[in-house]
């Protein structure tokens, strides 16, 4: 007796579903100190990025780990090479000279066009936003270029070339020399000092 295609196809789907896991187990807690686990190649996850890191704590936009044009409302390419992806547009005051921006951020290195799995620096991990006195705080030039004019309430992804980050010297041991960086930034508030 031959079974029709329907029961065989159903059995195959059931086997595949149980092998792949039937539930979404993505954990958005990015602030763990657990060592990275070896990834098994998964066609539904072409970047091989840990699902925990695919969604930013800084917004609901997809964070795939590559430096391509994904998950943003608008891309601004500056003459300096800094690229600003506006993930969520705020409606408050704009960052400008003399104002203080309270921001949360996560910084990642870029190697071979891919973002590192874990941030080298994170205000979220410290549990305290960074107070940026725009034009006065000692930050990399890529931040001054990328944050100027951004609105309170915005969620951004900054792509910063090495020359506007830590340059040839890097920031050992966290950032090797000549590394481009990517920052995920949440502009919480913009106020007078």
CATH topology: Chitinase A, domain 3
Helix content percent band? 10-25%
The top level CATH class name: Alpha Beta
What's the number of extended β-strand segments?
A: 8
Shape: globular
Report Rg.
Answer: 20 Å
Put simply, the count of helices is: 3
The total domain count is 1
Describe it for me?
- This protein has 193 residues and is an alpha+beta fold.
- It has one domain (48-191): Chitinase A, domain 3 (Roll).
- Helices cover 14% and strands 25% of the residues.
- Strands 1, 2, 3, 4, 5, 6, 7 and 8 form an 8-stranded antiparallel sheet that branches.
- Strand 1 (74-77) and strand 2 form a beta hairpin.
- Mean pLDDT is 75; it is low at 1-68.
Write the layout of secondary structure elements.
Layout: H1 5-20, E1 74-77, E2 83-88, E3 100-111, E4 114-115, E5 121-122, H2 123-126, E6 130-133, H3 141-147, E7 155-160, E8 180-191
Antiparallel strand pairs: 1-2, 2-7, 3-4, 3-5, 3-6, 3-8, 7-8
What is the structure about, briefly put?
The chain is an alpha+beta fold and 193 residues long.
Features:
disordered N terminus, alpha+beta, 3 helices, Chitinase A, domain 3, 193 residues
């Amino acid at each position: 007796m031959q079974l029709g295609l329907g029961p065989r196809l159903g059995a195959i789907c059931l086997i595949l579903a149980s092998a792949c896991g039937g539930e979404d187990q993505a954990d958005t807690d990015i602030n763990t100190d657990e060592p990275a686990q070896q990834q098994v190649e998964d066609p539904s996850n072409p970047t091989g990025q840990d699902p925990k890191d695919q969604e930013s704590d800084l917004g609901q936009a997809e964070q795939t780990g590559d430096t391509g044009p994904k998950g943003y409302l608008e891309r601004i390419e500056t003459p300096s090479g800094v690229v600003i992806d506006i993930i969520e547009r705020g409606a408050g005051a704009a960052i400008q000279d003399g104002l203080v921006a309270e921001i949360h951020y996560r910084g990642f290195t870029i190697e071979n066009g891919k973002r590192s799995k874990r941030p080298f620096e994170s205000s979220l991990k410290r549990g305290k936003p960074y107070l940026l006195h725009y034009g006065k705080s000692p930050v990399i030039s890529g931040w001054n270029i990328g944050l100027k004019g951004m609105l309170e309430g915005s969620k951004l992804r900054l792509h910063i070339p090495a020359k506007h980050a830590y340059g040839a010297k890097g920031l050992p041991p966290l950032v090797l020399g000549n590394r481009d960086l990517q920052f995920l930034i949440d502009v919480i508030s913009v106020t007078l000092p």
